[in-house]
Amino acid sequence: MTRRRAVVAGAGIGGLAAAVALHRRGWDVTVCERAAGPSAVGAGIVLAPNALRAFDAMGFDAARATGPTSPAAMDLRRPGGRLLSRADGVALAARYGRPPLAVHRTALAAALADALPEGALQYGTEVAAVDGADGRPVVHTSAGTLTAEVVIAADGIHSPIRRQYFPAHPGLHYSGETAWRTVLRAGGPPVRAAAETWGRGERVGVVPLADGRVYLYATAVVPEGYRPAGVRAELLRRYGTWHDPIPALLERIDPAAVLQHDLYDLAAPLPRFHQGRLAWLGDAAHAMTPNLGQGGCQAVEDAAVLAHLLDGADVPAALAAYSAARCARTDALRIRSRRAGRVAALTNPLAVAARDLALRATPARVARRALDDLFAFDGFGQTA
Predict the structure, then answer these.
(1) Fewest CB atoms less than 10 Å from the CB: which of 201, 302, 363, 371?
(2) Which CATH superfamily does the domain covering 5-69+102-171+267-342 fall into?
C-alpha cells in the first residue's frame, strides 16, 4: 500500500504535533523549518487538560516524553501579595481528569521531534509558497520543491502562506502589550507555587518547573515596538518592588535568554482553515493573545483533529470537515482571550479596584465552571 505524503511548514509545537499525529497514522511526513536548528533559548508552556487529551488522542504521552513536569495550579495576586483568586490543581484534576502541566517549551519540541523518523525534520528549509492547493500541491522551499497529498501551514503568526491565499485579510491586531519571557536556571530559592500578579497595566507570572527551573514572564502596556536598552533594569524598574519572590527572580535573569515579543492576535477570523489540499494550523490559522494560555493548546487540538479526520478520508473533504470543526471554537477563544487581556491590562485606578474586587468576590466553583469550554475537549473536535 502506497503511503500518503504530507508536508508541514513550520516546526513549532503545532506543526510538530501534526507531523507526529500523521506519522503515527501511516503518513510519510516532511517538516520544513526555516531556523537552522532547535533554539537553545525558550520559554515555558502550560499544557491545559484539553491539550493533554489531544496529545493522548495522537498517542503521545506529553508528561512522560518531556521528563519531569509540574502541576500548574495558579494563584492570582496583587503587587503587594494579596490573593485575588486561586485555581487549585487538585480541584482541576478532579473536574477535568488531570491538572494542567508546566513544561519547558524546548523540551516539548525536542520530544515531539524525537517521535519523528530520521530525516523527517528539515532545518534550514524555508517554505516560500504553496501552489496548486486545489489539485496536486507544490511546496516551494529554499531547498527545492516538494509535492504532497496534503500541506499543513503551521508557519506561525506572520504566516506567509496565509498572506498568499488570503491577501485581503487585515492581518494582525496589536493588543497594546509587550511580553518578556525566560526560564531561570535551577539553583535559586525554590518557588513553591505558580502565580500571576496583576498591577495597573502590568503583569508578572511565575511558574515552577519540576526540575527546579522557573518559567518567568511579564507584560506591560507600551507602544508597539518598544524595546528597552537594558532588559533586567527595565523589569526591575517596573516590578522590583512587587511581592516575593518576584524581585529575587528578576535579579537572576540572564538578559541574553530573555525573549521579548509584542502581543498580537488576528484582526479578524479567517473565512476557513483550508484550501483544497492545504490546511492552516495554530497561530497561522487563529493567532490569539496568551491571556487564556490556549494558543499552543489550540494548536495541539488542531493537530489531533486534523490527523483524525485525514485518517483514510478523501483529503479535500477531510480538510473541509477540519474547518467546520475548528473555526468557530478557535475564534471564540481568540475573542475571549482579547477581552481577558483588556481586563488584565486596565490602568485606571478605579477600574483596577473594581476588577480586583470582582475577582475576590467570585466563588472558586464559578471560576472553575468558566473553564469548562476550554478544558473539556474529547480529542476529536468536540467539547465533552
Answers:
(1) 363
(2) FAD/NAD(P)-binding domain (3.50.50.60)
